Amino acid sequence: MRILVLGTGLVGQAIVRDLADHADFEILAVDQNPDALDTLPVDTRCFNLQEADLTDLSAGFDLVVNAVPGSMGFSVLEQLVQTGIRVVDIAFSPEDPFALDGVVRKHESLAVVDCGVAPGLCNIFAGYCTNLFEKFESYRCYVGGLPAVRRWPYQYGAVFSPSDVIEEYTRPVYILEAGEEVVREPLSGVEWLDFPEVGTLEAFYTDGLRTLRYTMDIPCMYEKTLRYPGHAELMRIFRESGFFGREKITINGTSIQPLAVSTHLLRQQWKMKPEEQDLTIMRVCVTGRTGAQRKRITFDLFDRNDSRTGISSMARTTGYTCTAVVRLIADGCDLRGICPPEWLGKNPEFFESIAAYLKERNVTFRIIEEELLPAER
After folding, report:
1. pLDDT at position 61, please?
2. Rounded to whole angstroms, how far apart are CA atoms 17 and 295?
3. Distance CA 100, CA 24 (A)
4. Of these four, 143, 179, 233, 254, which has the most CB atoms within 10 Å of its CB?
């Protein structure tokens, strides 16, 4: 199988290196930054993807991994599916991927979207639960990528672009309550959860349900991002003070966008040092009924960076979920159209294949099953 990987940032690098270990894959990695290509063990090409003719670039390949930044993710996906090539996409963009379903089906092709850790692996967990319940009641996802050691004043360190993080803090949050769609303010709804590996973390609303709002019949659903306590309040202050504003302001005759300045400054403040460790925590709680019995299924994931390879935990959990699905397609997955990850999770064989692939790379999770009383969440 000939595979084209578009984008070799921190996650893209992990994807390329993992795919390169498969003897039956031939890889070409493309990025506009030559430094991001220098050490990769595959064929590379330095190219500005915003100006590229993706029809020519993808010709002769069997599958494309779309790992470009979210700001250009949907545009790239739209161009790719028009060629009829199969795509596995991890670019987190606000557009509705199902708008492209007709094009993909016309070509009898496949595009697996939102195929990272969250969205992505959490969706796979939700889909798997369709085999465990007759009727769903609720879905709650708590997820975060964090530095292993807290640092003042932000209680945070980013292993990817600050602009993508800020996007989470400003985009309206869509959740479901009693079967109705409700809009919440990002960074609101703060609650505190205890994790044995790191202690108490805060959780707040972010817009991460994505396709789950339409594909799963679950009346109550939300996602919350995990951070060390204090981060949400500080980010709310920044946002309400205008630091994340997109409209330009004029200072001493110079027009400038506040968000651009904030992103530039936070990139330096949030950048993790090479020796710093990061971790990923995700807890997905799904409740439902089978007959008169109520149950809660909890999926708990805790992962640390790989000190041997230098690959961050966020790159591992996101990238290896993506490459697990690439492997699934290479082995003959015959789905068609736009495919959200939850549809993969509904197939027990696909779920077991993905879980085994992750386990081989030491990305593991626990599944905890509990019976519930009528009043319990």
Report:
1. 97
2. 40
3. 30
4. 143
Length of the chain: 377
Output the CA–CA distances (angstroms, integers) from residue 89 to 12, 14, 42, 186, 340, in the order listed.
11, 14, 20, 25, 10
**Domain positions in the chain:** 2-116+316-360, 121-311+365-372
For residue 36, with 0-12 CB atoms within 10 Å meaning exposed, 13-18 middle and 19 or more buried, which class applies? Answer: buried
The CATH class given to the 2-116+316-360 domain equals alpha beta
What is the rounded CA–CA span in Å between residue 67 and residue 76? Answer: 10
Using CB atoms within 10 Å of the CB of residue 306, give its burial: 0 to 12 exposed, 13 to 18 middle, 19+ buried.
Answer: middle
Long-range contacts, 192-198 (Cβ 8 Å, 24+): 192/229, 193/142, 193/226, 193/283, 195/281, 195/283, 195/302, 197/279, 197/281, 197/302, 198/146, 198/279, 198/281
Residue 320 sits at the vertex; the CA angle it makes with 343 and 213, to the nearest 5 degrees, is 30
Name the stretches of the chain with pLDDT < 50.
none
Instruction: Identify the pLDDT of residue 275.
Output: 84
For the chain, list the strands marked E by DSSP. Answer: 2-6, 26-31, 43-46, 63-66, 86-89, 110-112, 135-147, 173-177, 180-184, 191-195, 199-205, 220-227, 249-251, 254-256, 278-290, 293-304, 337-339, 365-372
231, containing H or E segment: helix 231-240
Tens of pLDDT along 192-214?
Answer: 999 999 999 999 999 999 999 99
Please tell me the CATH code under which domain 121-311+365-372 is placed: 3.30.360.10
Q: What is the pLDDT of residue 254?
A: 95
In this predicted structure, what is the pLDDT of residue 151?
85
Residue-wise pLDDT for 344-363, tens only, equals: 999 999 999 999 999 999 99
Angle between the N-to-C axes of helices 313-330 and 10-20, in degrees from 0 to 180, rounded to the nearest 10: 40
Q: Using CA atoms, how far apart are residues 83 and 85, in angstroms rounded to an integer?
A: 6
- Determine how many CB atoms are found less than 10 A away from the CB of residue 165: 18
